[in-house]
TrEMBL record:
Keyword Transmembrane annotated: yes
Name of this protein: Major facilitator superfamily (MFS) profile domain-containing protein
Gene3D superfamilies reported in the protein's UniProt record: MFS general substrate transporter like domains
Domain Major facilitator superfamily (MFS) profile: 29-406
Species, as recorded: Spodoptera exigua (Beet armyworm)
Transmembrane segments: 26-48, 163-184, 190-210, 217-241, 247-266, 337-360, 366-387
Name of one Pfam family that matches: Sugar_tr
């Protein structure tokens, strides 16, 4: 809803245009949050694509062309899936029974899988848990790289081009469905995370910069819900399409179509002003005013100078020249960066740790994962209320204290 001060026939100050939350913001928020859902599905794809499946050792002397995961001749004794039963030395029958084996075991070298729903079967990763765990680690490393690089790209090339680039390049994940080598798969996983992860930072900055300061918290909550919806949608899709190749094609394939976003989402006016693209910034301001039905003095906007426009939006000249080195020159900023970084690391470690391990709980792994993501929804509403009422620091400390105690 547009700010009441700028409604009706009253001429609104140019600087007040970005303090409204109207149709322009609603449309742009929706357009930005939609691909964020797909990016979220990509960033947790390994939970099911590289998930564990049942398998057993292959006993060549007893197998036939129609061998199943639960053969009738399998020994009654408990055998771990990385070991193979040993046949009796005097076994001469053309078939095997439960009594055809000794109590000895040997190391297994071939396996039969219950299904091929994950890469474990198709890339033959049985009894190599470190390789499976490495995929998640590599993906997280790629996300870290992406966050760092995308910040620079957003400042250098713009928020909108960076966002679209990171989203569209996510279709590189389709290559994983054609590889037959584990190491190639890991490389593609890293590249995929290295590009898609950056869309989060670019998207969040756009959402914050096209609305007023009092809507920043709401922007974060809306974007968080887009991420949660993506996680829920991923669980539902995986529930009905468990085969990993089809699953990846469903979530990666549509990303290529977001290339058309270059025609329907717009750059942040604030970034345009900071980078001296004043004429484009004026066009953006006019667009926002028109869509939100805000009455501004267009003649004043056309004749306003660069310095005056920067002044109206509280953009000082030194802001343009600031770089990453400024972080280390200010003790306050550096301290806050370290504290917030540690808070973010801790929260992510706990949140994704619980979510990833939910598939190991008794019951249907897809339902367990879905429930673990749904549980995140109330938290954002609670945090929105508490932070608006008590600020950021108290709710943050209380949240960590309660979580740590529980």
């Amino acid at each position: 809803m547009a700010d009441k001060k700028c409604e009706g026939n009253k001429v609104c100050e140019v600087s007040k245009v970005l303090e409204t939350f109207g149709r322009y913001q609603i449309i742009q928020y929706s357009l930005i949050c939609f691909p964020a859902m797909f990016v979220t599905m990509i960033n947790i794809n390994y939970i099911f694509a590289a998930g564990d499946i049942n398998y057993r050792c292959r006993v060549n002397e007893c197998e036939d062309q129609n061998s199943t995961f639960y053969p009738a001749w399998w020994p009654n004794q408990t055998i771990d899936r990385c070991s193979s039963p040993v046949l009796l030395e005097d076994h001469t029958q053309p078939y095997c029974t439960n009594q055809s084996f000794t109590e000895e075991l040997k190391t297994c070298t071939e396996w039969i899988y219950e299904s091929n729903n994950t890469i474990i079967a198709e890339l033959n990763l049985a009894c190599q848990p470190w390789k499976i765990n490495l995929i998640g680690t590599i993906h997280s490393t790629g996300m870290l790289v992406s966050m760092i690089v995308s910040g620079w790209m957003s400042d250098r090339f713009g928020r909108m081009p960076t966002f679209i680039f990171c989203v569209v390049c996510g279709c590189i994940g389709l290559i994983k469905t054609f590889v037959t080598s584990y190491y190639v798969y890991v490389v593609i996983e890293f590249l995929e995370a290295s590009v898609t992860g950056g869309s989060y930072a670019a998207a969040m900055v756009i959402l914050v910069e096209i609305a007023s300061a009092r809507h920043r918290l709401l922007s974060g909550v809306i974007f968080a819900y887009a991420i949660y919806l993506g996680e829920c949608l991923f669980a539902v899709i995986a529930m009905f399409v468990p085969y990993w190749k089809t699953l990846l094609r469903i979530i990666n394939g549509p990303l290529i179509f977001f290339i058309f976003y270059i025609f329907i989402i717009y750059e942040s006016p604030r970034w345009q002003i900071v980078n001296g693209k004043i004429e484009k910034a004026k066009e953006s301001i006019k667009r926002i005013a028109k869509m939100n039905k805000i009455n501004i003095d267009y003649e004043e906007l056309d004749t306003i100078t660069d310095v005056e426009l920067k002044y109206k939006f509280d953009i000082a000249e030194n802001q343009v020249k600031e770089g990453y080195s400024e972080i280390f020159k200010s003790k306050v900023i550096l301290k806050r960066l370290l504290v917030v970084g540690m808070c973010r690391f801790t929260s992510s470690f706990v949140y994704y740790g619980l979510m990833i391990n939910s598939v190991w709980l008794p019951g249907d792994k897809y339902v367990n994962f879905l429930l673990s993501t749904v549980m995140s929804f109330p938290g954002e509403i609670i945090s929105l209320y508490l932070m608006n009422k008590y600020g950021r620091k108290i709710p943050l400390m209380a949240g960590y204290f309660i979580s740590g105690t529980v």
